[in-house]
Request: fold
Amino acid sequence: MSLLTPDIGLLFWMILSFGIVFAILSKYGFPVIIKAIEQRKEYIDQSLEAARQANDQLAGIQAEGEKMLTQARERQNIILKEALAEKERIISEARQKASAETLLQQEEATRRIREEKDKAIREVRSEIADLSVAIAEKVMNEKISRTDEQEKIINGLLDKVSFSKS
Reply:
């Protein structure tokens, strides 16, 4: 008997034992193995589906986050624009108010200057009238007949009166 060529009896018993083991395995073993493989396949499919759902949820959350971030930026821009407009409005109001106050102060100063000018003119006129009366009194008291003499007397009197008033 050689190792490379088996005997027919050995072949028979090997095929018979293989058939019995195969029959037992096909009746009891293969269904359990197939059931375990199918359960494992279902578990993997469920895990893949859960992973897809989680990925979809994550994408939805990311999109929502981006949307919220965009809305926040838009609100920030709107608030900044409103603040800028409010700043410009306040500055404009302040300028108008300052301009109006400046105009009022200028008008008040102009009015005071006119009053002081009118007062000074009244005082000058009063002084001129007093000087004229004083000169007339002096001229009347001195009875002058010549024009040159009158001018000399008036100039002399004006000098005396203006020096005495100062």
